[in-house]
């Protein structure tokens, strides 16, 4: 199907995603409760990452979760967080303006940046500022403090109801809370409202460069060459702010293929391990491990999202090691007893790599695997120990492959 | 990922967006060092020296007789809550819902208009003892209301975007040594940009206590497994991303091998917050004579109180105030309080007029506190009053943070601020210490 066909098969999914494989359960075999049980929201998404046949949609949803970082603990309502996540899935390839507009009045976002508390005469600037600084223009690019205040007025009017039984519900626009007066945003005067706010941002001349650089950064570690960036900005503008054409252009650009490997975000790392081993979600342990590795889904560190340049330090690497260890545990327990006592180094290494669905390892890593296999085989003092040591060796090899570049990097 | 290079010092900060200043220290190389005696793992920044040389450098460096601890209140503390201007006639008008009642607050002897927040009772106590120098309206001309940008200014000691070193980092470059990374210690996993240096090494606490990894195989295979893991860290890396993996692998394997657990017993009078735990650790290190000259940490909680400010702020002020109080008392008990000064800062204050959600939006002038047995205890700059706000309705500053930095350098460190704070001669020095 060629490169273009391959890219299109990712960027142009048809119909609903199909989830294949075992449905997600906790360690007791009970179905997860994504909207209700603490941590099950994280498992719900992880499960989609593992089982969905629309992999790029899941990746795009994660990108927009990071882009429009919404804070689960502040929202304190898992249903609203799941709804927002589905909003990202449904709009990840369409118009950025549509997505941005829906995010602006999305209940989880309204709560995170106090949009539902922003009202006529008493504006709350939280969303107005971040929609420019973090979501569409970049700090100190194309807007003033005056614009923040005027934009806050444009966004007034959203509210919700609350009951002890339902918690927050019925998020809606209420005209009497809206400031219908004239506002001047980016030098343009009008009786702007919430639908105008994202449009004004997207029409700001500083927006296309922000959008392209940010989207690019999720796929390619090195910044785009100037010509590439300008080409992408042109595609974006001409398409009427569509996301898909820019994603396709990035995935088809030579820089994407020549790029250095990037460290997978922790949730992506775990999902890739479970996919490789065809293991479904069967324990809540992943929630804490992902958190320790630096990425609890639905709970980014702040409204600017995760720092994709720093996924690894000693605490997070330790968590990745433990993740690997937990992923292989059932397979290690199931290794044959007695284990083939004469298995060669080559076969042992091959088998360990195959257990991860054959990722590409660096030559140095392959050499180290072989060396480890030789050293551990030599630990057996008598033929009676051969079988046992070869079984433990296989367990160790699988662990090492799990923390090698083949699995950690993408 | 655009900035994947090695923005180590900025690790505590969110990903950099277009226009957002790169945190000071971006690009500093990072390595790990273990201080076995202290049960401490350090991430060391900005040196090519071999680890044994650093180990020796730390052992050979004398314990400094002056230490500065920088405490950052993240998000923009509402100074009008910490020191509520209950005596200002406009206070209730600007804060119809949030204004504190005079009766619930605590007196502030230096300005009858201001009263301490009740949750800051321990700070008020230290102030009564003459150990808190208050700057009721700290700031700079042309205030920027982006968290990330204004914070950057305070970190680098300059109102501009893009300096690569922090103001305390430059102090260490001028007066520090090339082999003692403990001289600038972030009491957090990531290096504070305030401490980012150009030439001398500094460090961040990367781990304290035991550090273990599970093994799918028992001994003797387990020992070989960790040998191989550590050797994978020594493999070449052709890209920045792979370099991260190799370094993290090496450091993780070394930590597992060498880190003993640090034992502490009892609560030592400290409350149970992470901030208090870090300050407690700092006291232990200072008492052990470790060569720390400047240290930095983040105060309890977040201060970006756009909505429902009162309860959040109360808890965070309480927690920060109590941790600082416990630290000061511990230093006094150990007889080392004369060596230590604390500087508390935040990137800006909040808008005097509350917003419609029982919160406050980003403002201009904010808080500065200098705390310690040697603090002058004399308010510097005055509370500007609420009748003369700036054109955006924000509190005007009456002291400049760069003036405070100059004062600290001159009066606490006996250091000419000229090479450290650009344009130092232009700033009025408050009396910070006695």
Structure described in brief:
Chain A is 54% helix and 5% strand.
Written description of the protein model:
Chain A has helices at 2-11, 40-51, 55-67, 72-75, 78-91, 96-104, 107-112, 126-133, 145-154, 196-203, 207-219, 226-238, 244-252, 254-258, 266-276, 285-293, 314-333, 345-354, 363-377, 383-402, 405-408, and strands at residues 158-163, 167-173, 183-185, 188-190. Chain A is mainly alpha-helical. Chain A has two domains: 2-258, no CATH class; 266-408, no CATH class. Chain A has a two-stranded antiparallel sheet. Chain A has a two-stranded antiparallel ribbon with strand order 3-4. In chain A, β3 and β4 (188-190) form a beta hairpin. In chain A, α17 (314-333) packs across α20 (383-402). The model of chain A has no long low-confidence stretch (mean pLDDT 95). Chain B is an alpha/beta fold and 434 residues long. Chain B folds into two domains: 9-211 and 269-426, Alkaline Phosphatase, subunit A; 218-258. Helices cover 30% and strands 15% of the residues of chain B. In chain B, the strands form two sheets. Chain B has a ten-stranded mixed sheet, with helices on both faces. Chain B has a three-stranded antiparallel sheet with strand order 4-6-5. In chain B, α4 packs across α10 (309-334), α7 packs antiparallel against α8 and α9 (274-288) packs parallel to α10. The model of chain B is unreliable at 1-15 (pLDDT under 50). Chains A and B meet through α8, α9, α11, α17 and α19 of A and α7 and α8 of B.
What secondary-structure arrangement, pairings included, does this model have?
The complex is a heterodimer of chains A (410) and B (434).
Chain A: H1 2-11, H2 40-51, H3 55-67, H4 72-75, H5 78-91, H6 96-104, H7 107-112, H8 126-133, H9 145-154, E1 158-163, E2 167-173, E3 183-185, E4 188-190, H10 196-203, H11 207-219, H12 226-238, H13 244-252, H14 254-258, H15 266-276, H16 285-293, H17 314-333, H18 345-354, H19 363-377, H20 383-402, H21 405-408
Chain B: E1 30-35, E2 40-45, H1 51-60, E3 67-73, H2 79-82, E4 83-84, H3 91-94, E5 106-107, E6 115-116, H4 121-128, E7 132-139, H5 147-156, H6 167-175, E8 184-186, E9 202-208, H7 221-233, H8 240-258, H9 274-288, E10 294-298, H10 309-334, E11 340-346, E12 366-371, E13 399-400, H11 401-412
Parallel strand pairs in B: 3-10, 3-11, 7-13, 8-9, 8-10
Antiparallel strand pairs in B: 1-2, 2-9, 4-6, 5-6, 7-12, 11-12
């Amino acid at each position: 199907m060629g490169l273009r066909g391959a890219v299109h098969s990712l960027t142009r999914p048809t119909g609903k995603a199909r989830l294949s494989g075992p449905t997600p359960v906790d360690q007791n075999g009970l179905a997860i409760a994504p909207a209700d049980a603490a941590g099950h929201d994280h498992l719900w998404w992880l499960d989609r990452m593992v089982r969905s046949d629309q992999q790029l949609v899941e990746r795009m949803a994660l990108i927009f979760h990071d882009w429009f970082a919404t804070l689960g603990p502040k929202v304190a309502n898992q249903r609203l967080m799941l709804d927002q996540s589905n909003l990202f899935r449904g709009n990840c390839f369409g118009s950025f303006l549509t997505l941005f507009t829906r995010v602006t009045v999305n209940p989880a976002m309204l709560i995170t940046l106090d949009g539902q508390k922003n009202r006529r005469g008493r504006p709350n600037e939280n969303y107005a500022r971040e929609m420019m600084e973090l979501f569409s223009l970049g700090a100190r690019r194309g807007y003033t403090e005056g614009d923040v205040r005027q934009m806050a007025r444009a966004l007034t009017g959203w509210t919700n109801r609350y009951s002890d039984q339902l918690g927050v519900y019925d998020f809606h626009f209420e005209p009497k809370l809206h400031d219908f007066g004239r506002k001047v945003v980016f030098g343009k005067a009008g009786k702007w409202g919430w639908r105008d706010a994202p449009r004004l941002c997207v029409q700001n001349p500083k927006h296309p460069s922000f959008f392209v650089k940010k989207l690019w950064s999720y796929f390619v570690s090195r910044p785009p060459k100037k010509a590439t960036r300008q080409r992408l900005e042109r595609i974006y503008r001409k398409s009427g702010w569509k996301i898909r054409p820019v994603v396709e252009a990035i995935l088809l650009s030579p820089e994407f293929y020549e790029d250095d490997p990037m460290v997978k975000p922790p949730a992506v790392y775990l999902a890739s391990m479970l996919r490789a081993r065809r293991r479904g979600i069967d324990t809540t342990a992943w929630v804490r491990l992902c958190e320790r590795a630096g990425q609890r889904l639905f709970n980014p560190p702040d409204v600017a999202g995760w720092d994709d340049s720093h996924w690894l330090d000693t605490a997070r690497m330790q968590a990745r090691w433990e993740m690997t260890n937990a992923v292989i545990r059932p397979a290690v327990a199931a290794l044959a007893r007695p284990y083939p006592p004469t298995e060669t180094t080559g076969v042992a290494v091959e088998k360990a790599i195959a257990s991860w669905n054959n990722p590409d390892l660096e030559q140095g890593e392959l050499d180290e695997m072989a060396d480890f296999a030789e050293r551990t085989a030599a630990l057996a003092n008598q033929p009676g120990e051969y079988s046992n040591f070869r079984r433990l060796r296989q367990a160790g090899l699988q662990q090492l492959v799990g923390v090698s570049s083949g699995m950690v990097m993408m | 990922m655009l900035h994947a290079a090695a923005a180590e010092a900025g690790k505590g900060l969110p990903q950099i967006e277009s226009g957002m200043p790169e945190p000071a220290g971006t690009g500093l190389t990072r390595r790990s060092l273990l201080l076995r005696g202290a049960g401490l793992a350090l991430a060391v920044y900005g040196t090519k020296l071999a680890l044994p040389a650093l180990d020796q450098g730390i052992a050979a460096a004398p314990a400094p007789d002056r230490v500065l601890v920088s405490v950052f209140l993240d998000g923009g503390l509402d100074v009008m809550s910490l020191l509520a201007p209950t005596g200002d006639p406009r206070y209730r008008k600007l804060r119809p819902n949030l204004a504190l009642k005079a009766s619930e607050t605590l007196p502030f002897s230096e300005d009858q208009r201001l009263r301490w927040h009740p949750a800051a009772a321990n700070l008020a106590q230290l102030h009564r003892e003459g150990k808190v120098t208050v700057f009721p309206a700290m700031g700079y001309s042309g205030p920027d209301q982006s968290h990330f940008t204004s914070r950057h200014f305070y970190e680098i000691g300059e109102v501009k975007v893009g300096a690569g070193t922090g103001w305390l980092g430059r102090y260490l470059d001028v007066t520090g040594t090339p082999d003692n990374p403990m001289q600038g210690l972030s009491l957090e996993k990531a290096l504070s940009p305030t401490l980012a240096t150009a030439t001398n090494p500094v460090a961040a606490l990367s781990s304290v206590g035991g550090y273990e990894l599970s093994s799918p195989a028992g001994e003797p295979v387990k020992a070989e497994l960790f040998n191989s893991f550590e050797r994978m860290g020594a493999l070449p890396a052709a890209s920045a991303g792979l370099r991260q993996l190799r370094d993290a692998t090496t450091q993780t394997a070394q930590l597992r091998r060498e880190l003993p657990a640090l034992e502490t017993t009892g609560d030592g009078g400290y409350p149970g917050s992470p901030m208090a735990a870090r300050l407690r650790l700092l006291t232990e290190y200072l008492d052990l004579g470790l060569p720390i000259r400047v240290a930095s940490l983040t105060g309890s909680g977040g201060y970006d109180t756009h909505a429902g400010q009162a309860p959040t702020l109360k808890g965070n002020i309480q927690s920060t105030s109590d941790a600082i109080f416990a630290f000061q008392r511990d230093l006094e008990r150990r007889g080392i309080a004369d060596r230590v000064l604390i500087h508390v800062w935040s990137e800006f204050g909040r808008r005097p007029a509350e917003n419609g959600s029982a919160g406050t939006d980003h403002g201009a002038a904010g808080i500065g506190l200098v705390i310690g047995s040697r603090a002058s205890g004399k308010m510097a700059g005055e509370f500007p009053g609420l009748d003369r706000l700036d054109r955006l309705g924000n509190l005007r500053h009456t002291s400049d943070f760069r003036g405070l930095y100059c004062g600290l350098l001159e009066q606490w460190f006996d250091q000419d601020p000229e090479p450290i704070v650009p344009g130092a001669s232009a700033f009025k020095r408050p009396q910070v210490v006695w």
